[in-house]
Amino acid sequence: MWMDHRAKVQAERINKAGHEALRFTGGEISLEMEPPKLLWLKENLFEACWQKAGTFMDLADFMTWRATGSQIRSLCTVVCKWMFQANDTGLREWNSSFYESIGLKELLEDQQQKIGNLFQLPGDPCGDGLSHGAAEELGLRPGLPVGTGIIDAYAGGIGMLGADVSGLKLPCETRPLTSRLALICGTSTCHMSLSKKETFVPGVWGPYYSCMVPGLWGNEGGESCTGKLIDHIIHTHPAVDLLTEQSKKRGCDMYTWLDDQLMTMAREKHLSSPAMLTRDLHVCPYFYGNRSPLADPTLKGMICGLRLSSSLDDLALLYLATLQALAHGTHLIVQQMVKSGYDISTLFACGGLCKSDLFLQTHADVTGLPIVLPKESESVLVGAAILGAKASGRFDLESAMSRMCGVGKVVWPDEQQRVYYIKKHEVFLKLVDHQREYKCIMEEL
């Protein structure tokens, strides 16, 4: 489970050793990746798990194994999460010096049977198709093509980024696919980009070759705690019971109620937008550490501007400040990508958080970029279907993307909020700097 952060010590040890392979993870390996997790299992569950395990694999690879009986691994899973080496000159191999240096050389034994030795691009036909056993369980025909899998967030990228935006006057309309950034917004948020060349972005994972689209390099930024943070802020607030009661009375969910209440509060204060309600309230959203671009799992959440009040209006303001903080986190990732050579002009977003118009508008306003919502909201499933289409042999990946992706609506940034959010971003950066300063002070003890 990516959100399991038990391997903190192991990740710190790997990073301290400074193997050259870490440049493909933004300079530091994340405790959410597989090598530190494997090392944790070896050091903490040696007899109960490590010695007994026959093979280790990502969920995407487990699912294709379950469907076909084939242990072919997806190039996406092993390159993005396992430090597997792949590039545009044909290199495809495990980084033996890395695994030996961190104390996992036994995984390289027996032709790497425990971690895989057969690899394919996402969507390539896996094994002999659907096995007889799986076909019987699913009520399908044996031998049906099964596409080699992909990490769920990357499936979301495949299910959105190929959409035809002709006539929408979006900045990406006259630019290549590499000017689009996919946001997969759920418990966490993943920021998926594509490049024609190997692009290293400090604090951002990658570059990973052919991890999403064959022949293109990918980078992955992310916020470890987004939807989870919003829920935490709401459900730990003293007014949550009253919020539940009020939203039930109105026949809506609590997020819609909060969005509506913020609009009411803005009108009462004669503000053109709810955004300015948080002029004196600021949040640092790193309650579960920072995945990128700071790559610091030790960072904590911060709230500046609390009052001696616990009303529904206070909850609404804190909710808004949290949405803004998450948008500033995305802006920080985009800035780092652009600084490293990317030309990000348009965001494409999917996931549960995209049901909130306020979440989307805030992201557009803070980043200054338009956001495209897909025609089909479940873009991860669309991406999986595209891989199935590729496995059928009737489409290559990019043609399937262009035919199966679609545009739902576009959220444009409100330029009137630009100056306000520039100042809010300055405060956002100060919160992080101050937290690190406080940590240094306390470490003097």
Which CATH-level-2 architecture of the largest domain?
A: 2-Layer Sandwich
How many distinct folded domains?
2
Q: What's the average pLDDT? A: 96
- The CATH topology assignment of the largest domain is Nucleotidyltransferase, domain 5
Let me know the number of strands. Answer: 13
Class derived from helix and strand content: alpha/beta
> What is the straight-line distance between the termini?
36 Å
Q: What portion of residues belong to β-strands?
A: 5-15%
Radius of gyration, in Å, reads: 23 Å
In words, what does this structure look like?
Keywords: Kinase, Transferase. The protein is α/β, with parallel strands linked by helices and 445 residues long. The chain folds into 2 domains: 8-138, 2-Layer Sandwich (Nucleotidyltransferase, domain 5); 150-445, Nucleotidyltransferase, domain 5 (2-Layer Sandwich). Helix content is 42%, strand content 12%. β5 and β6 (189-195) form a beta hairpin. α10 packs antiparallel against α13, α11 crosses α12 (254-268) and α15 packs across α16. The chain is globular, with a radius of gyration of 23 Å. The model has no long low-confidence stretch (mean pLDDT 96).
How would you summarize the topology of this molecule?
Blueprint: H1 8-17, H2 34-44, H3 46-50, H4 59-68, E1 73-74, H5 75-81, E2 84-86, E3 92-94, H6 96-101, H7 109-112, E4 119-120, H8 132-138, H9 152-158, E5 180-185, E6 189-195, E7 205-209, E8 217-223, H10 227-235, H11 240-250, H12 254-268, E9 282-284, E10 302-304, H13 312-339, E11 346-350, H14 357-367, E12 371-374, H15 379-391, H16 397-404, E13 407-411, H17 418-442
Parallel strand pairs: 1-4, 5-11, 11-12
Antiparallel strand pairs: 2-3, 5-6, 6-8, 7-8, 9-10, 12-13
